[in-house]
Amino acid sequence: MTDYDYGNHKIREITPSGEVSTLKGLKDATGTDAVFESLTTIAIDVQGNLYVRDKERIRKITSGGIVSDFAGSTEGYVDGPGVDAKFFFPTGMDVDIQGNVYVADSANNRIRKITQE
After folding, report:
1. What number of helices (H) and strands (E) belong to the chain?
2. Which of 9, 33, 86, 105 could form a disulfide with 29 if both were Cys (CB 3.0 to 4.6 A apart)?
3. CA distance 53 to 16
């Protein structure tokens, strides 16, 4: 199971045997060198990549622990590739079987689709 620890700005993974590991991760990096600012939503794709909402951006964490900005940057409403896109208070997120990420961009009253291009 993987979930976010909001107050501590960390992502925790718990194995079926109860072993806990931490991925700190706003700095893009690998493993515990990554830094997050404000985690509130998490989704996982069929390849085991995690997508987390971190303020106004969506961050991707590969199964190897590499953290990068996937979409979004600052508050607003702009469609575009990757960090050119802007969200305003994204709240919910899910990933379909093709790897498209759907984000509830709540303050913009929209469901946004991010493709894997």
Report:
1. 0, 11
2. 33
3. 25
Give, in order, the Cα–Cα distances in Å from 115 to each of 34, 55, 71.
24, 20, 10
Tokens of 65: 């622990």
List the structure tokens of 109: 């009253």
Does pTM top 0.70 for this prediction? yes
User: b/e for 92-108, b at 16 or more Cβ within 10 A?
Assistant: ebebeeeeebebbbeeb
**3 φ, ψ to 5°?**
-150, 170
pLDDT tens track of the chain, all 117 residues? 555 566 666 677 777 887 777 765 446 665 556 777 777 888 999 998 999 998 899 999 888 888 888 999 999 999 999 999 999 999 899 999 999 999 999 999 999 999 986
**DSSP 8-state assignment for residue 61:** E
Tokens of 69: 């900005």
